Amino acid sequence: RLVLHTGQGTRDHPPAQVALRDRLLRAVVSCFKRHGAAAIDTPVMELRETLMGKYGEDTKLIYELQDQGGELLALRYDLTVPFARYLAMNKVTNMKRYHVAKVYRRDNPATTRGRYREFYQCDFDIAGQFDPMIPDAECLKIVHEILTELQLGDFVIKVNDRRILNGVFAICGVPESKFITACSTVDKLDKVPWEEVRSEMVGEKGLSPEAADRIGEYVQLHGGLDLIEQLLQDPKLSQNKLAKEGLGDMKLLFEYLTLFGITGKISFDLSLARGLDYYTGVIFEAVLLQQQNEHVDELLGVGSVAGGGRYDGLVGMFDPKGRKVPCVGVSIGIERIFSILEQRLVASGEKLRTTETQVLVATPQKRLLAARLKLISELWDAGIKAEMLYKKDPKLLKQLQYCEDTGIPLAAIVGEQELADGVVKLRDVSTREEVRM
Amino acid sequence: RLVLHTGQGTRDHPPAQVALRDRLLRAVVSCFKRHGAAAIDTPVMELRETLMGKYGEDTKLIYELQDQGGELLALRYDLTVPFARYLAMNKVTNMKRYHVAKVYRRDNPATTRGRYREFYQCDFDIAGQFDPMIPDAECLKIVHEILTELQLGDFVIKVNDRRILNGVFAICGVPESKFITACSTVDKLDKVPWEEVRSEMVGEKGLSPEAADRIGEYVQLHGGLDLIEQLLQDPKLSQNKLAKEGLGDMKLLFEYLTLFGITGKISFDLSLARGLDYYTGVIFEAVLLQQQNEHVDELLGVGSVAGGGRYDGLVGMFDPKGRKVPCVGVSIGIERIFSILEQRLVASGEKLRTTETQVLVATPQKRLLAARLKLISELWDAGIKAEMLYKKDPKLLKQLQYCEDTGIPLAAIVGEQELADGVVKLRDVSTREEVRM
Question: Where is L-histidine annotated to bind (chains A, B) (predicted)?
Answer without folding.
Answer: 78-80, 105, 121, 125, 274, 278-279
